[in-house]
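Sharing a chain and its predicted structure for anyone who wants a worked example. Both blocks are below, sequence first, tokens second.
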Amino acid sequence: MRSFTQHARLRRRGVFVSGVLVTAALALSACSGTAGAPAGGSTAGGAETAITSLKVIAPADPGGGWDQTARALSQVLTEDKLVSSAPVTNIGGAGGTVGLANLATEKEPATLMITGSVMVGAVETNKSKDRIEDMTPIAKLTEEPAVIVVPASSPYQDVKSLIAAIVKDGPQVAITGGSAGGTDHILAGLLLTDAGLDAATIPQKLNYVANSGGGEAATMLLGNNVAAGISGVGEFAELIASGDLRALAVSGAERSEKLPDVPTLTEEGIDVTATNWRGVIAPGGISDGDRAALTDLVTQVHDSDAWASIVAENGWTDAFLTGADFDTFLTDDIAQTKDTLSVIGLVG
């Protein structure tokens, strides 16, 4: 059974592609010592490391899924008194790889970065010298389907008419979303693959306008500067509810609880499903004790009622993994992402 979660299945062509990018980077600036356990309890591996404060880094501008995840994590850490402080710093750019480069130089072991599908893909498309494999995996947290939206005044009433317009008119029908090579970009490419375009044709037809945060994409859509947008359900849900944006389809295998009236792509006859995962990593080369302390701290967040409420409110799916399970998942996802990006023509 495969352990990765972002996937697209194109049965008609017998192609299975999966994996894609990361979403957010957390950096936790913490105090560590040789006595005591992390705030809230002992470490999973019996580590003698105390974490009292954290710096949380979201590797994107405010308003997107990475930023939301970082602030949710910080909120639970501080309100449940697991640490004394966990300030969030936004370091946006290049699909999270600017934040990744920052994490690579971090000397404080009690530092976390939000990561996920978007970052996995951005490392490949940006040819980043700093790689997720060089950092320390801590935990996978959530999964989230994407939603494809158009401005309220758009002539496109369903996702198939939007795709047909892109196939016909190409660059005249612009789509905005997250970072270049990220999950949103990949999903756009997979929609055109399912429509019959090959990898050589997709770059000619797809006018994808990348943004470093969900707020920028929303601004472009509300200003009618693009024809459509792709992002996580949680990022566009309020604008959909207000009527400013119209949702055409969601990318999960099932309808989103947050958007129960919006059909899935498969319901619309498009053989593509995809979800975007988010998690946290720490600097590379930290001690086993520091890794165990960070894992224990994030586990306490996951097990809290406050975190469960935030996950439900945002329409996320709990997908918690730590230790060897997360290591294996991440290795598989990176490999599958490389394959996916190659199939849809985003990397050579």
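Comments welcome. The two ends are 28 Å apart (CA to CA).
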